[in-house]
Amino acid sequence: MNDPRFHPPAGGLVPHMGITLIDEGAGWLEAKMPIEQHHLRSGANALHAASMIALADSVCGFAAGQALPDGAKGYTTIELKSNFLGSASDGTLIGRSEADHLGRTTQVWTSTVTHQETRRKLALFRCTQMILY
């Protein structure tokens, strides 16, 4: 799916990381990221934590953008937390976000990062978005 949020004309982190939309609905969004060499830790055959955070935060952020209350102009992440459960060195990561709270001033989202081929959960992520007016 060629969604302009994931492929903005000016580029940015999301297209650099290879993150693309799979699907979305009311209160959720799912995207994938094929694991490439630049996603790995230097000198190690394992994912860099920031790679998984980039995927998890992106799916939460793009979902938040689709769930803005009336009159809101945008959002920004004001808090995030990650728990890493495992790693991978190849294959594809799936990030799925789900809304936990959709308020007028804040939203809370949970994201799970899963290795597509093994279906193993690799990270749990929670973030708070501040709604901008």
How would you describe this protein?
This protein has 133 residues and is α+β, with helices and mostly antiparallel strands. The chain is 17% helix and 43% strand. It has two helices and six strands. It has helices at residues 13-17, 49-66, and strands spanning 20-25, 28-34, 74-84, 92-102, 106-115, 121-132. Strands 1-2-4-5-6-3 form a six-stranded antiparallel β-sheet. A hairpin with a 5-residue loop joins β5 and β6. The longest helix is centred in the middle third of the chain and has 18 residues, at 49-66. 29% of the residues are buried.
Would you kindly provide a brief summary of this structure?
This protein is of the alpha+beta class. It has helices at residues 13-17, 49-66, and strands at 20-25, 28-34, 74-84, 92-102, 106-115, 121-132.
Task: Order the strands across the largest sheet as they lie in space.
Answer: 1-2-4-5-6-3
Strand tally: 6
Mean pLDDT, to the nearest integer, reads: 95
SS-derived structural category? alpha+beta
Give the termini separation: 30 Å
- Share in helix: 10-25%
- Uncertain residue ranges: none
> From N to C, what is the helix and strand string?
HEEHEEEE
- As a whole number of angstroms, the C-alpha radius of gyration is 14 Å
Main sheet: strands, sense, barrel: 6 strands, antiparallel
